[in-house]
Design brief:
This is DNA-processing protein DprA. This protein is of the alpha/beta class. Helix content is 44%, strand content 11%.
Length: 351
């Protein structure tokens, strides 16, 4: 263990393998101590400023550190066999978009090629209707043509449609997994995952090998989808759909939020009700419908007030303004961001 730097992937993995140390604590220890040996030899008072007394005591157990280091090395060896990069929050290759998050993962597993900052998340229901299928293809096609990479979660439904559309139109796409990169979920998307890698895309996860995509991990995955992206596009969702987790993270992370507005019979579909709420309700009404509480509700009411929380895309006429908003945001010129209003009813059509 002598000389292992805490800020490396090996160091962070060793720390998180210790009992009582989670990702955030591991990062704090790495910021305070440059070497694992420095932690082992640290005075209890210094350790207790970062961890509990019980954890501080365990950090002075040589066998615990050795065992944790061996476990970390097994993870790194497995990553090497699978051609997976293990990035530490302190590595220069760690995505800057995630680095800015307060709940960022200190370790990221990456297989393939991560894009530059020009990434947008495209998400939605696992059971899209005709409307969801059509808008997913048309919006992704427009984004790819403007050189935006598509981030999604490799789930069935809109996620799959978005990845496929990105590949079909010659774009780059990134799949964020809820489990370890040693197991593709759902299995029927294994071929799609392979194609994503073949076409210069990437598979990303914060979960170690062998970890399944549990409900909690699926929600954690959602924050990475929006976190990696300049904006989130919600193609279709119910007001209580799982996509609303990504909507919440998008708003809390101060990313842009877009949604295509369903018209006619499509507006009556259950899977369109979340879209209508995002694009037509005031922030307060949306907060009530989404059962938003705490900090999330405060942000909604303070930031949006009487405006809808998502930029509505009512027709292709809105695409130009949509792309301008994205360019302004990626350039860091948030002051120029302005809401895009729906086109007149005469112009509205299936996007």
């Amino acid at each position: 263990m002598i000389g292992i730097e805490t800020r490396t992937a090996a160091g962070i993995l060793t720390l998180t393998a210790l009992r009582g140390i989670g990702p955030a604590t591991a990062e704090r220890l790495a910021e305070r101590f440059l070497l694992l040996d420095a932690i082992i030899g640290a005075e209890p008072a210094k350790l207790r400023s970062v961890v509990s007394a019980a954890v501080a005591e365990s950090l002075h157990e040589p066998t615990a550190i050795v065992n944790a280091g061996e476990k970390a090395q097994r993870v790194l060896d497995e990553a090497h066999r699978r051609d997976v990069r293990v990035l530490s929050i302190f590595d220069v290759d760690y995505p800057d978009a995630l680095r800015s998050l307060s709940d960022r993962p200190p370790i990221l597993f990456v297989k393939g090629t991560l894009p530059p900052r020009r990434s947008v998340a495209c998400i939605g229901t696992r059971e899209p209707s005709e409307f969801g299928e059509i808008v997913s293809d048309r919006i992704v096609e427009t984004l790819v043509a403007a050189n935006w990479a598509i981030v999604s979660g490799l789930a069935t439904g809109v996620d799959t449609l978005s990845h496929q559309a990105a590949l079909r139109h010659g774009g780059q796409t990134i799949a964020v997994l809820a489990g370890g990169l040693d197991g593709i979920y759902p299995k029927q998307n294994t071929k799609l995952a392979d194609e994503i890698l073949e076409r210069n895309g990437a598979l990303v996860s914060e979960q170690p090998f062998g970890v399944p995509p549990s409900p909690r991990n699926l929600v954690q995955r959602d924050r990475l989808q929006s976190g990696l992206s300049i904006a989130t596009f919600v193609m279709q969702t119910d007001i209580k759909g799982g996509s609303m987790h990504t909507v919440r993270f998008t708003i809390q992370q101060n990313r842009l939020l877009f949604a295509p507005v369903p018209q006619g019979r499509h507006a009556a579909e259950p899977k369109s009700q979340g879209i209508l709420a995002m694009t037509r309700f005031s922030a307060t009404r949306f907060a009530d419908a989404a059962r938003a509480e705490g900090d999330y509700r405060r942000i909604l009411v303070e930031r949006y007030r009487n405006d809808p929380v998502a930029v509505p895309l009512a027709s292709k006429e809105d695409y130009t303004s949509m792309l301008e908003l994205l360019e302004n945001r990626v350039a860091g010129d948030a002051a120029q961001d302005a809401p895009v209003r729906p086109s007149s009813p005469a112009q509205m059509s299936m996007l």
